[in-house]
Amino acid sequence: MQTQFNDPLLLAGKVLTFLMQGALALGGALVAIMIPVVIFFQDEINSEITAEQADIVTKLPIMPLIGLFALILVAVALAFLFFGKLRAIIGTVGERDPFVPENADRLSFMAWTMLSIQVLMIPLAGLALIVATWADAAGHEKVTVDAGLNLTGLLLVVVLFILARVFKHGAAMREDLEGTV
Predict the structure, then answer these.
(1) Crossing angle between the packed helical segments 101-137 and 151-180, to the nearest 10 degrees
(2) How far, in Å, CA of 100 to CA of 74, rounded?
């Protein structure tokens, strides 16, 4: 079936999801690079910090920082998958065939993905707080952490699960209708 992207909203959705996936891939690559940099150059980083501010006695919290980067990497990967599924759904809408069982599965996957990201935010906030506390002690500007469970994100999870059921029911009704004709 030929894809119809005469609808500017569908075209915008397709472009935006593509751009989001590109930005997430780039961000994920940068975070992935930071993990070995922090591991292999921790002594140099600590020496540089000490050279700049000799009164600082605390060392860079390597394990919380690596954990923070690892959790961010997982969250970025999940978000990348989320936008891939969204782009696939937009594609079926452009083909004028949205009520297919695959879209119900995609919406359900997207809901589980968003729930996973929300749960990841809890330990991520804790690790970020450890690193922010170190940064404050190291004399950097006041660092704040704005992470944790997000009610809007949880609402999105519920909406996605409901939409998955709607699409599943719509696909079943469509199959029943096609079977009777």
Answers:
(1) 170
(2) 29
